[in-house]
## 1
Amino acid sequence: MRRPPRPRWGADDAQIARLALPAFVALVSEPLFLLADTAVVGHLGSAPLAALAVAATVVQTVVGLAIFLAYGTTASVGRRLGAGDERGALTTGVSGLWLALLLGTGAAVATTVVARSLVGLFGTAPDVDAAATTYLQIAALGLPAMLVVLATTGVLRGLQDTRTPLVVAVTANLVNIMLNLLLVYGLGLGIAGSALGTTVAQWGAAAALLSVIVRAARRREADLRPRRRGILEAARAGVPLVVRTLTLRSALLLGTLVASSLGTTATAAHQVVVTVVSTLAFALDAVAIAGQAMTGRYLGAGDVLGARRMTRRMLVWGLSAGGGAALVLAAISPWLTAAFTTDPAVRTAAVGALLVVAAVQPVSGVVFVLDGVLIGAGDGRYLAGAGLVTLAAYTPLAALVWLLHAGLAWLWAAYAGFIVARALTLVSRERSAGWLRTGAAVEIPA
């Protein structure tokens, strides 16, 4: 008797869509904070705009390195939830929130103290330095809120809720736009008003998300007090994810350094390509977030077969998203570059590189999905090691482009090699059983 054909859209797809689609919209809304600041400050002149670029780079670096607060809590909370221990899931999440608050407070103090020195590293003009320092010192006050938003978002994702972070993110962006307009133009505070408006909006988002977590914790009688062991466990679990993140950022930094050695045209075109790649990442990362949440829940419940099944289905989603992105990008790349520059040489260089990027998007789809699945499985140590291996594979390729002065398309071909290397390490791990550790892995003290 022949087996009935598997439905093209089933219950597994509905689960993925329920988590991935709100996550996608929330991810897209995240850059709007910087976009709103840029649009408002840009009308103040070139010096304030340059100052914003410098200060925002520092803030984004700090927040980017703390992304483990979202990833780690998603995995640990999801495992507890899958094991049927919602109280333990919330207690685990609360420990992550306390860690975020501690790290954010430390980052805020340190950034405020060394703000002038950090800005000085960029070698900008004195008027730009002064404005950037002002923005950075005010924006630093929002760092605890930004890290708390990461941690609370991770807790809610672990609880299989991606809609609440979406609503809060959209609301915070609207508030940010209104505050920026009021403070910068209405009260004439200039770039300081932009930093203040964004900081207030970030604290509002943190408060809204915290209130949701606190109410849920009280309903389940989860302990809201800071517990040393829980906080240390959350920090320990985050270390491998920090290493993983550093390897990814190092690869991007290395690419920028090589591009800058190829001349002004290549550097400008490289920035266009990086912007497009970052935008494409939102769609692929949404499926990865679904992977984090569901993998943790399935393995927490001891359902290895379910985790395998969902992983294979999410790979279909990743390949489809990557394939669709490849076709669209290849088709519109000649016109897309016109939105960024009118320089023919820059457009030509960017189009060549974008075609290379388009070709590797299906592989990127696989990479994003499996990265999310392994994060959800708590396999951070493997991801850290694999990240170091793939960075070591990419470095000589980038160095070869630099030595031969080969051009931007070849630089992005080297980066495609980095993506392929990541895919190989992730696929080999997925096919093994090493990541399929079941049960609530994180122990919470009584």
## 2
Amino acid sequence: MKSLGGFLELETNLGNHYHPNLLALNSGRNALKILLQNSSFQEIYLPYFICQVVVDVIQELNINICFYDINNHFEIKGDIPENSCLLYVNYFGIKQDYVEQLRYRQLIIDNSQAFFAKPLQGNHSFYSPRKFFGIPDGGYLATDLTIENLDLLSIDSSEDRFTHLLKRVEFGPEEAYSYFTENENIINNLGVKKMSRLTTKMLQGVNYDSIKNKRRSNFELYHSLLSKPNEYHVSIGKNDVPLCYPLVVNNNQLRGVLRDQKIYIPYYWPEIEDRYGKSNSASRLSHKIFCLPVDQGLETEEIEYIVNKIQKIIE
């Protein structure tokens, strides 16, 4: 029996996981890793435009990588044999309609940017919930593969991974950023474990419906104000819940000017140029795409403020 009484524990509103039937692990990276460890994949087609973490996991397991390009709709460019194993990123959480059209012998969907996307039967998906919620770690895996020795996995512990979250509340993102990057480095080196009890409780307390609606409405507001200068003719499906609003413009000053205004735009992904060189299409795209925040903490007037600053720079 668990311990009863004594001092009160951290307040959490216990509800349900959004993905209650998926394998709950301690990171998205480890969700991919345990999938590949239990597969027979010898070669995987991978987009050039992808996080280095995914590349590292595949290379660590000595699986051959064949890279492919994406077009200006962030969809597969060129022909790839349908009997291939292919990994596709559900970019920005708004490519689910396209994902459902893909037909490959083995399909792995990177839903790190698409937490709310439902897994598709017969395919594999992995998720990184901390990109959508203020939690320290965690990941989910959807697969029909048998995961060997699953019962032997220990439960992770997260109590030492909250500094960046607490400092952001108390002092703001500038004070917390170095702790955030430190936590990301820790997560990248975690062994495969089950999701911690603390992260589990936090994810059971999320108001998922409210967050869905807020992210979608924030996205639509950006789109109403920035669709004209945006080189990406972006659209959002009825079931999509975006990670960000992807603005594609050719302006080398934008990111730095916004940073000076305390508007922080993530860079997806700076290591691409080092990996492929400046002339690669993914490298060029990484400099042109600005992932504007749509998170649930943003209000209408704050988005309008961000857009106003952007318009002054790119007009």
